Amino acid sequence: xxxxxxxxxxxxxxxxxxxxxxxxxxxxxxxxxxxxxxxxxxxxxxxxxxxxxxxxxxxxxxxxxxxxxxxxxxxxxxxxxxxxxxxxxxxxxxxxxxxxxxxxxxxxxxxxxxxxxxxxxxxxxxxxxxxxxxxxxxxxxxxxxxxxxxxxxxxxxxxxxxxxxxxxxxxxxxxxxxxxxxxxxxxxxxxxxxxxxxxxxxxxxxxxxxxxxxxxxxxxxxxxxxxxxxxxxxxxxxxxxxxxxxxxxxxxxxxxxxxxxxxxxxxxxxxxxxxxxxxxxxxxxxxxxxxxxxxxxxxxxxxxxxxxxxxxxxxxxxxxxxxxxxxxxxxxxxxxxxxxxxxxxxxxxxxxxxxxxxxxxxxxxxxxxxxxxxxxxxxxxxxxxxxxxxxxxxxxxxxxxxxxxxxxxxxxxxxxxxxxxxxxxxxxxxxxxxxxxxxxxxxxxxxxxxxxxxxxxxxxxxxxxxxxxxxxxxxxxxxxxxxxxxxxxxxxxxxxxxxxxxxxxxxxxxxxxxxxxxxxxxxxxxxxxxxxxxxxxxxxxxxxx
Length: 545
Ligand code: F6P
Description:
Layout: H1 8-17, H2 23-29, H3 33-36, E1 38-41, E2 44-47, H4 55-67, H5 70-78, E3 105-106, E4 109-110, H6 111-131, E5 144-148, H7 155-163, E6 173-177, H8 182-189, E7 197-202, H9 209-224, H10 232-235, E8 236-240, H11 243-249, E9 256-258, H12 275-281, H13 283-302, H14 309-323, E10 328-333, H15 341-353, E11 371-376, H16 385-390, E12 397-404, H17 412-429, H18 433-439, H19 447-457, E13 465-472, H20 475-496, H21 507-520, H22 531-542
Helix pairs in contact: 1-4, 7-12, 7-15, 12-13, 13-20, 14-20, 15-20, 18-19
């Protein structure tokens, strides 16, 4: 038995989970439920009233937080304690967006001055590129930037850039390459001109196979387009914590933007990894993005647990994962610009909390990180909402929508909102058999047929959802939104007593992948492998199935 499952609050929640009435009756018995279970912070509004909760539920969840020393753990995170214990590292993505010196001294380094220097280096670079001061090897302005990176070195820049499309200055085109599948880079290079293209190679470790291979192919393309090796410095920059390897790779030292080991890859968009974002939206908007996230950091650090947005969202997720066996959590963005956000939250949440050993090395005896998935509304209503409404599992949902569109057009936005709110209502109230039967009253079906069809039309409801609104999608509200989910993810890991900041689970695949690579390229035999791996390798080598 782990410490967590012996907590009195944990066992009280288990007993309580069997007593929570259907949300229909909870709303019927409390006209003020919406006001009671909603919260504004940092330009965001959270309606969490459509959850399977009562005052008692929340009281017990906050007891769990207190028994888990959550407030102390939040302080440890934000003050730079080495909470990433398996790598002996601090976790300080919050410092990247601090608006004033957080006075954190890490192993003798004043990190704030390093952060400020890097932001200044980014600003200078963005100005030089977008003003045309930085010229390509034939003296032309840079018009296109190709960002090469994967995981947190791709998802953050790509998805935040996509979300802030209304804020692009139009001075630079940006293209993102991640997958080692050659199609990714071949398609992105089509139509580009080496004279006016600059590559940003983003890799915290500078050891990720996909990124190294893509960058080598980019260099090869660059030379084949007529440039010479000496021109590389004008067209390749790098973002990495491994300056030595970046220099060995041929990146000019002055073109290397630093990263630090106290910034996790999936938390790094606020660092120089966000360079493509800054190139597209400008440094002023990039700084607004940072400021919005910082506002959420301050809220997370100072708001009482009971009025703390990330804490409430994190505890609600624990409630469903551990007491209602929720296997997944769906994020539905009712805004086309935010369509990539579920994919971003997948790495953020699943690479952080997909763990099964506690900090002190015990196997967990409870569920931890859920599967995060989702997409844009209203598209999902025509794809997977059927399962959300009538499937056999409980899938908590987050609905995210700005109240105002960047593209007001006729009835579009009010229809989008009607779908968003209507879906949360349907998930909550469902449709009873009696209601379904009444709807068939005037149909041509006979009584037996009406009974049968009504049965198929029943929707249990009582399906929980959060609705997150913002006045408008801006750099500031997007920063606050992403920081909200970062801290929600932290809250869950803190309750589960796991390390949310390492990722040992991705190492074996990389090692075995490199071994298979040697066998595919016929430098090693494969007979000693399992028959499947051996068979697949042979099929590839023989190039026939
Ligand atoms: O998926 C493993 C991982 O290390 C992620 O955590 C990281 O974002 C990605 O690979 C890329 O790593 P790097 O930035 O070091 O190339």
